[in-house]
Design brief:
alpha+beta; 7-stranded mixed sheet; 6-stranded antiparallel sheet; about 25% helix; about 30% strand; globular; disordered C terminus
């Protein structure tokens, strides 16, 4: 297996390569102004053309400079930049480049303050500023692990999450290339709200270093879709349960590790009329006592994909989206003018359950055992530049 994968992937170590990702920041909002303050040390401000090719260095920020804050704004189709009160000019695109390998910058947009490492690329795209962090893969992975689940001090869990984050990134490298970047910073890719620097940052960085180069592949050496969710509710589901495509390595399984831990249970009240009307409208049937009784008698001894009524089916993911539910794993009862949904699990239920993985780590399981439990028939392998991998389906992580 290892020899075959080495041939097919042309494997090399990321640690020996300058492997960079372009990650769009503030991707869930429109941005017209950005404030950036580089760390101490020398930085270059490089002008780019409309194809994001380097033209020339237009400004140097030296270590001794007392004014280091840069103000970027949209000026028509160009980026305007000031250093303090000093106007530098207007450009098609810009890249802020650090002269050192471990530098960072603080950034603010629309009132959200964050800290990132490596370089920053800014241009006007579709009427707003497109802000992109050009960052080393392993630094990105550490930031994702912290943003997605850095609240517990569990090394083996962090290792598993790091392998998944790296695998997902490699599998989806081409996802947004037509827009000038690889991935977003939100749940449509992976959450990446800062560099890794909070209370568990040391152990997260250790986990990333210990698993450096490691991704999960299928038997024919294709990187898997490294998907995860908060809690399975005691049972994961296959990929076709949540989306459209069935994948062999994403199968339903009983998950005792997720029971009674973390975000295992939930409850929500919804107005009766709103809830029943949605079912009736979606199924194109009358909102009568027969439908309402069927909804109230609907149970899930194991997780179901559909509510079925008179030969018609409503996919439960639609119910979840409509009422912003934590999962599709629920039962319904009435209370006055409301229905009460009592559910288990948090998220789509496909792939790794974070709460379950944390519990496995606490019980002494290794990251290899954790990943082997949640993904069927896969191998851990080193991987280098997999630049042409296409995702089987668009994944929303939540």
């Amino acid at each position: 297996m290892k020899y075959l994968c080495s041939i097919l992937l042309g494997l090399a170590h990321f640690s020996g390569l300058a492997f960079e990702l372009k990650v769009r920041l503030y991707s869930d909002m429109n941005v017209d102004k950005v404030i950036v303050t580089p760390d101490t040390g020398l930085y270059y401000l490089v002008a780019l053309n409309d194809k994001l090719q380097q033209l020339d260095t237009v400004y140097d920020i030296f270590d001794q400079d007392s004014v280091r804050t840069l103000y970027f704004s949209k000026d028509g189709q160009r980026v305007s930049i000031n250093r303090g009160k000093q106007r530098i000019g207007d450009f098609e695109a810009l890249r802020l480049v650090s002269a050192a390998s471990c530098k960072e910058f603080r950034i603010e947009a629309n009132g959200r303050n964050r800290i990132y490492q490596d370089d920053l690329q800014i241009r006007v795209y579709e009427g707003h500023l497109q802000v992109v962090n050009v960052v080393d893969m392993e630094k990105y992975v550490a930031g994702v692990v912290e943003s997605e689940g850095g609240h517990v001090e569990e090394l083996e869990y962090f290792k598993a999450q790091a392998v998944l984050a790296r695998t997902f990134a490699l599998k989806n490298l081409q996802k947004h290339m037509s827009q000038g970047y690889n991935l977003k910073d939100d749940v449509t890719s992976q959450v990446y709200f800062s560099k890794c620097h909070y209370k568990n940052s040391d152990i997260i960085k250790e986990a990333v270093e210990c698993t450096a180069d490691t991704v999960i592949v299928t038997a024919d050496c294709n990187p898997i879709l490294g998907v995860f969710h908060a809690n399975s509710g005691g049972q994961t589901v296959g990929s076709d349960h949540a989306w459209l495509t069935a994948l062999d390595y994403l199968q339903a399984r009983q998950d005792s590790f997720s029971i009674g831990v973390g975000s295992y249970t939930w409850e929500k009240k919804i107005g009766k009329n709103s809830f029943y009307s949605f079912y009736a409208h979606s199924l194109k049937v009358a909102n009568d006592l027969s439908l309402q009784k069927s909804i109230l008698n609907f149970t899930q001894p194991s997780r179901k994909a559909y509510f079925e009524y008179k030969g018609r089916r409503l996919k439960l993911t639609k119910v979840r989206r409509q009422f912003n539910l934590r999962s599709t794993y629920f039962t319904v009862s009435e209370s006055g003018n409301n229905v009460v949904l009592r559910g288990r699990g948090y998220g789509h239920g496909v792939g790794l359950s974070q709460d379950g993985a944390i519990e496995m780590s606490r019980r002494g399981y290794s990251y290899r055992q954790i990943l082997g439990f949640y993904f069927d028939g896969v191998e851990l392998e080193a991987a280098a530049h997999i630049l042409n991998a296409e995702p089987e389906t668009m994944i929303i992580l939540d």
